[in-house]
Amino acid sequence: MPQINLAKQHPAVYEQLASFSGAAENAAAAAGLDPKLVELVKIRVSQLNGCAFCIRLHTRDALALGEHSDRLAVLAAWWESQYFSPLEAAALGLAEEVTKLSVPPRTDWDTGALSEEQSSAVSWLAVVMGAWNRVAIRSGYRVAP
After folding, report:
1. Which of 23, 51, 61, 96 is deepest in the core (most CB within 10 A)?
2. Distance between CA atoms of residues 137 and 145, nearest Å
3. Domain-by-domain residue ranges, the chain?
4. pTM for the complete prediction?
């Protein structure tokens, strides 16, 4: 079966995902997470899921917020760099854990840098970003220069 645009096929479901996404972003803001970190989480989840459309979209959003290109360049191997704070490293590790669903759970990211509220917010961001990745990939959203 060819790719179909899920948003056009079932716009009400798409709108519910958009609402869910907004709620996750509001939770992140209420938890005190920096908007640049929110974008880093979205990019990292999209990297793991292989969603070029969302990687490009959120990289542009991160740059618009003032994120540095060096940090974006090493995001795929964040744990090997010294660019990320303990809080950012914990959030990225948690986002990877939620995205990959390791069994048994990988908890090396849990350094205590994230509060329970922040941990929950990052988890919701990863869950909703994974859903967006699947919509974009399944719908065949084009990524061209």
Report:
1. 51
2. 18
3. 6-139
4. 0.92
